[in-house]
Structures are given as C-alpha cells and as structure tokens.
Write a structure and sequence with these properties.
The protein is mainly α and 199 residues long. The protein has one domain (13-198): Fumarate Reductase Cytochrome B subunit, CATH 1.20.950. It has helices at 10-33, 42-70, 83-91, 112-137, 142-145, 153-177, 186-193, and strands spanning 3-6, 195-198. The protein has a two-stranded antiparallel ribbon. The longest helix has 29 residues, at 42-70. The radius of gyration is 19 Å and the shape is elongated. The termini are close together. The mean pLDDT is 92.
Length: 199
Amino acid sequence: MSNRIYLFKVFERIWHWSQALLIISLLVTGFEVHGSYKLLGFATAVNTHTTLAWTLVGLWVFAIFWHFTTGEWKQYIPTLQKVDAMAKYYLFGIFTDAPHPFKATTLKKHNPLQRLAYLFILLFVGPLIWFTGWFYIFFDNWTAWGWDKFLSLPVVATFHTLAAFMMLIFLIVHVYLTTTGHTPLAHIKAMITGWEDED
C-alpha cells in the first residue's frame, strides 16, 4: 500500500531540471576550457561557459527570491536528527531491504543528509565556484583594479577546477541516490510529475 503526496511544485521542478542542465553544460564546457578534451573549440567553449554561468546566476537569483517569498527556504534548515540512521541506511540498509528511516512530507521534503549536502554546496562549493569564476571573467581588468597584486591566475584556475570536481562528485552521488527509492525511477518520476509515491 502506498501513500501519494504532491511533493514538488511546478517551479521547483522547472528550477531543478533547468539548474541540472545548466550545471552539466557548465561542467562540459568548463573541462574543455581546462583542456581536458576538444569538443566546441576553446573560444566557443569559453563564450558558452560564460553565457551559461550568467544564466545560472539569473536562475539562482530568481530561485532564492521564490524560496524566501514562499517559505520553502525552511526545507533546507540543517538538522542532525536521524543523520546516523540515514548514514546507516545508505551504507547498509538499501542493500538489505531495510525500511527507509525518513518519510518525506510537504513540510520536510529533504532528509537530514540531503540538507547537510545542500548546505555544503550552498556555503562552500557554490561560493568557491562563483568567486573564482568571476575572477576569471574579469581577468582583463585585474591590473586596472589592482587585483593582480593579490590574485594569481593559476591559483584561481586551480580552485575553480577543484570546485568543479566537487560539483561533479555531488552530481554523481545525487543521481545515484535518486535510484534508491522504492523503485529505481520513483524519485526521478516525482521530480517530473511532482507526486511522490511512498510505501
């Protein structure tokens, strides 16, 4: 027997998939700029990467506004309650068909580990990507602004790439964990339709 709840609103789903597409595209173009492979060509990759970055900034500004005006920001308040239970479930429980220790509701959509992961992205990975990215974008102005006295392009590039790898790891883990519902596609279906079916 399952309980069906409308978990994700239309904007959340549009924001989620738009953000995912932009981040994946940024990773693809960014690693080409880094010299990992050749796909679009360096100049096109740089221009595309910059356009995608500014588009993602716009999406995030709009999403932050939406979260604060709707009160959905409360979904991301971190908690340590049941963190150990969630860790045990992901490490062992999913392999032994153990019951899920967290039940999503409209007021608590994200489990404690998700909240901590999102907090890490929001407070550490995101700012590292954005600040190093903006330093990159405005590299031509460093001398005029006096930034060349305390900034080094190789250092900025290293930290920007490090942040990109952290985002890639988050993306891989995020996609993997979407397959840990009561069916492998249950969580993905919920993020498409908005409806979550729980046992």
